[in-house]
Design brief:
Pathway: Lipid metabolism. With 230 residues, this protein is of the alpha/beta class. Helices cover 46% and strands 15% of the residues.
């Protein structure tokens, strides 16, 4: 709360200056870095990345599982200038919501059905045209570590419309910061998996992406089960 409150002054300056995009994005990333530093310094929650070589130098579609609030803010730092598809409820966060609306987020109202899909596709096309990658959490809400990954409608439309290489991403943040609980010490692993080419049949794309993420999550499911037995 203290760290976020420090961004009230920049907010006022940016608002008077007409909300310049690049400085706002930089400030948003700085805020996220501060949160990650606080998690590491005061709680002992750190992270490591694996497989960054799978991210192409050109815009791509990052498809990640969603287990906690951690990845929502961490990707602002992990993939600079990425356009993150996010739910409108995030904008209700004081101070932060103002920055998110004007920075990397593509905000959609999930209750608005067809219009939400149209907004998502148009926002992603604009981001790609500007040379930015897109990140989506296609499960639609936080999942449990034990649950199989299942995508909701929308990601297959993006895959077909954008024509981008897809990089599946598996995160195990739910082991340390599950929904509604307090974060605890540990190391979140962010695993970028082998890229999936554009142009595949929808069913093949969905099956390949879900399976790749699920297979990676099995690494931690097995370790968790062993710890519980011990």
């Amino acid at each position: 709360m203290c760290w976020t409150a420090l961004f009230l002054a920049p907010l006022a300056v940016f608002a008077v200056a007409g909300a310049p995009t690049r400085p706002i994005r930089a400030a948003t990333r700085l805020w996220a870095r501060g949160i990650l530093f606080g998690l590491r310094r005061f709680i002992g929650l750190d992270y490591v990345e694996e497989g960054r070589e799978h991210i192409p130098s050109t815009p791509c579609l990052l498809v990640a599982n969603h287990q906690s609030a951690w990845e929502t803010l961490a990707f602002l730092v992990l993939v600079p200038d990425v356009a993150i598809i996010a739910k409108r409820e995030l904008l209700a966060i004081p101070v932060v919501g103002w920055f998110l609306r004007r920075s990397p987020m593509i905000v959609i109202d999930r209750a608005n059905g067809t219009q939400a899909l149209r907004t998502m596709i148009e926002g992603c096309q604009e981001a790609v045209a500007a040379g930015r990658s897109v990140l989506i959490f296609p499960e639609g809400t936080r999942g449990e570590m034990a649950e199989s990954v299942r995508f909701k409608r929308g990601v297959e439309l993006l895959y077909g419309k954008l024509g981008l290489t897809v990089v599946p991403v598996a995160v195990n943040s739910g082991l340390f910061w599950p929904g509604g609980a307090t974060a605890r010490p540990g190391t979140v692993v962010v695993s970028y998996l082998s890229a999936i080419a554009p142009g595949l049949p929808t069913a093949e794309f969905l099956r390949g992406t879900e399976t790749a993420i699920d297979r990676e999550l099995d690494r931690w499911r097995g370790a968790r089960a062993l710890c519980e037995e011990v």
